[in-house]
From TrEMBL:
SMART domains: AAA (SM00382). This is Energy-coupling factor ABC transporter ATP-binding protein. Belongs to the ABC transporter superfamily. It comes from Vibrio paucivorans. PANTHER family: METAL TRANSPORT SYSTEM ATP-BINDING PROTEIN TM_0124-RELATED (PTHR42734). Keywords: ATP-binding, Nucleotide-binding, Transport. The keyword ATP-binding applies. Residues 5-236 form the ABC transporter domain. The keyword Metal-binding does not apply. GO terms for biological process: transmembrane transport. The lineage of its organism: Bacteria, Pseudomonadati, Pseudomonadota, Gammaproteobacteria, Vibrionales. GO terms for cellular component: membrane. One of its GO terms (molecular function) is ATP hydrolysis activity.
Amino acid sequence: MTIKITAQQLSMRFKERVLFHIPELSIGPNDAIYLKGDNGVGKTTLLKILSGLLKPTTGKIAQPTSNWLNRFSMRTGRKDVIYLHQSPYLFDGTVYQNIVYGIRYQKESANGKRAQVITALRMVGLETLADEHISVLSGGEKQRVAMARAWILKPSILLMDEPSASLDHESIDRLVVMAKDLLARGSSLVITSHQTNALTDLCRKQWWIKDTTLVESPLLQVIKDTSQEKTYATSNAN
């Protein structure tokens, strides 16, 4: 199922400081959004609000209702919306146990669930580490496990908070494989990153948090405009 969530008059205030006020926004279906902004402008806060992990100071979000099963099956506070932390929260157990945890309540046979986990592990290149304890993994491998755990739930909207920070090219490429698969299924992605990479290259829209509000523009248009500016500057220099 693919969904769309919308928000109106969304704001977040910390004491006297207004972090942001966004008159309206929408995500989905099948969006791919690159969320940008300087440090401290509220990118992570916005993602946590959209996922239901934080309550905004003002505003409301229209989305499918959540229930106790979603919360206890590693879903975020909103149905079909998953927030992927920059520093993944993993359980004290094996790689396999971490990934299968999210689907333990699914009405499917044990063999069927195992097949899903193995598929996820193959996509992130960790099938040989299924029975290893999570503590022996590198930072990049842990991020791949977190992505696999999110992917296996087939979210309608995946909010990725600096997913490529400090990752090598192989780890980023593995995340891209899963991100492309979700987009092909009709899911939406919102990706924050301080630099462009193979993940942000998947995005078709660009959001900027500037001057305490959200500015939206199609990413292809931004690239085109930047190219035109360079051409204009070069011709003027000549």
